[in-house]
Amino acid sequence: MGPAYFVIAILGCADGGTACTPVTTLETRYASAAQCTAATAAALEENNNFDFPTLVARCRRGSSESASRGPARARYRRG
Fold first, then answer.
1. 0.90 exceeded by the pTM?
2. Which of 26, 31, 57, 69 is packed most tightly, with the most Cβ within 10 A?
3. pLDDT value of residue 62
4. Domain for residue 65, yes or no?
5. Containing domain of residue 29, as a range?
6. Is 69 part of a structural domain of the chain?
7. Considering its fold, how many domains does the chain have in total?
8. What is the CA radius of gyration of the chain?
9. Average pLDDT of each block of 10 consecutive residues along the chain (79 residues)?
10. Measured distance CA(76)–CA(36) in Å, rounded
């Protein structure tokens, strides 16, 4: 497995944060989960133009060979 990094995935969710669908993955790579998590709120502010009642930002671990999901870190609700 190659070097690990983290990216932010933006998901669009139905009301209540259920039935989430990936809408974009940001290109910025973070060296640690903590750096990625710290950037999720700003990422949602900059990427809130998707037609879903709720948007969620998740940090996902990536490497040159694989990617996996991390926990949800930030949520934006239209309102």
1. no
2. 57
3. 84
4. no
5. 5-58
6. no
7. 1
8. 12
9. 85 82 95 96 95 93 56 52
10. 17
